[in-house]
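Quick note —
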Amino acid sequence: MPNAKSKSLKRTANSAVGALLVMLCGLALWKMSLGESWINASYDYLFRFGSHAVTNRVVLIQLDNEAYNYFHQTRGQPWDRALHAQLLNRLADDGCAMVVFDSFFRAPRDPVSDAALADALQRQRAVVLMAEQSRLTHPSLTGAHPILPGELFLNAATNWGVAWVAPDLDSVVRRHWPFPSPALYPSLPETVAKLAGAKPGDEPRERWLRYYGQTAPWTELSYRFALLRPKGFYRDAIVFIGNHPQNSVPGDEADEFSSPYTRWTGESIGGVDILITSTLNLLNGDWLERLPDAMELLIFAIIGGVLGWKLCQLRLLPAMGITAAVMLGGTVIAICSSYFLDRWFPWLVVVGGQAPCALAWTFVTRVRAATEWTRTLATAPAAEKAAPEPVPKIPGYELAPAPFGEGAYGKVWLARKPLGRWEALKIVYLARFDANAGPYDREFNGVSRYQPFSDQHPGLLRVHFVSEKLPGYFYYIMELGDAVDPNWNGNPASYRPRDLVSMREPLLKHRLPTIECVRIGLKLCDALDFLHRNGLTHRDIKPQNVIFVNGQPRLADVGLIAKIRSPEQPRTLVGTPGYMPPPPEAPGTPQADIYALGMVLYVLSTGNSASAFPELSSTLIESKTTIEFNALNRVILKACQLTVEKRYASAAEMLKALREAEATLMRETD
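Predicted structure written out below.
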């Protein structure tokens, strides 16, 4: 009887652990950065299984390679407006329902062709012209406002909308812009849809694009052949006129983006294709919306709990069958939900994460129950050889009983001399690198290289001593950062360093005041300039690596510091995603440090994560004056430019810009 009771308790414990593991697996993939690719794939692969039919008559006239060559136009230069006037007159003669230009008519050029274009615009039943989105990088711009077409053309057309798309970090465009929409001013698709009779509503909604197939459901033709169509070809059609990428290779042109289909075709699409897709979504009311967070959380909790609890109570074969059924059923439900209900959720978290996790735990519990594997493992000679990570004996120092921090490479203790003040002691273990001497040596060399400079600038965390390489580890002693709890001295085990992360935690929406962001940026940028002038790069600037000492921010976590290398020298891919400039830019350069510092300022000032850049909430914009908002945001946008040449040339240049921003803010408060 006691034996049976013991088995029952063990089975219950296994089920409880399984339920917890599978729920945690779902939550981790749902909310942590490691699950971002799973969530994106959940959206993308919905379009692998079919799409809605489109009955709207839409024609896309493309400025493609053939048209550029035939009309002797140059890519990157404005198209001849006389050609546009000629085409518009043909569209008016045919009775075209609406013309939509994804080309920006801003400055006047040739008076004759400008007048011809304006006259041709007035002949149309309806025209929508493209407006540009202000990028907030010019001192004279006042906040998030559109740049409208020139007065001559706007008076002729009367209708306009901002032509803008917002790709994710992997360059795939998944959301309607703005997100949520509508916002303060109309997007181009919104204007077109309303003119065509649609009523998408004025309440802001988080709309996701519904793509209509790998092959566009609208008619596409080259500008070269637009005038050669039969008479009446454009009657009652909505005609978009826009640029077509020079080639289909993703990422090598400005007006070129990836779609979900890029995953399996490897081909990009033009920005006008996304604008048409967004327009058709609004016309037909079939955009996608994601399930609310509370509902998604409930789904992952219920599925995770039931799968984790029940599956490990079954034999392997039935458990595999149920897992397969859950994966297939989850896929079918996700497809049907998106197709019929216009709703989507991260279904791959269940299908590709929670279900396999539950099956894996079942496998572990079954194997353990069928054999004496755990007892064999516990008594095996190999287990006896496993030694705990060593704690060094440092002459003259005492260590706290347990480390207060642990990273990928080692642990950090409180250490002090008798009756002395506490310092921080970090031990870096060779075993953490799988005994790979290369990255282990890189960490040692980085700290050793940094130590002589650490006390020469107030914005750097001081390293007092670096040990030699000892058997299996090395250690170094550094000054201790301020504590989150000011009364920690009475209980050293409660010590937690005060960094930018803990500083933001109690603040409303985790946002720092603009002036505070600028002042922190000044100190960090000055320290960064000092490092660069001494031939070093930090390589891992992020909020967790900015520690406060005596109330002042300092760059910390110095193990990745390296010498500045020439562009042709190879580099190790190290750093933190979100704070590293995206490929193909090489990591570990002064320009990459500038990008990372700009991203830190973005996170501090907006409360967003780095992955949300360059998103700005409307409440943030409304809560600040235009001068206050622009003062810091101009610096952030320039520091985080994707093109290196458009970024600050040096930390000194960025430091100068931050000082100008501080002066602007001080004048604003006077």
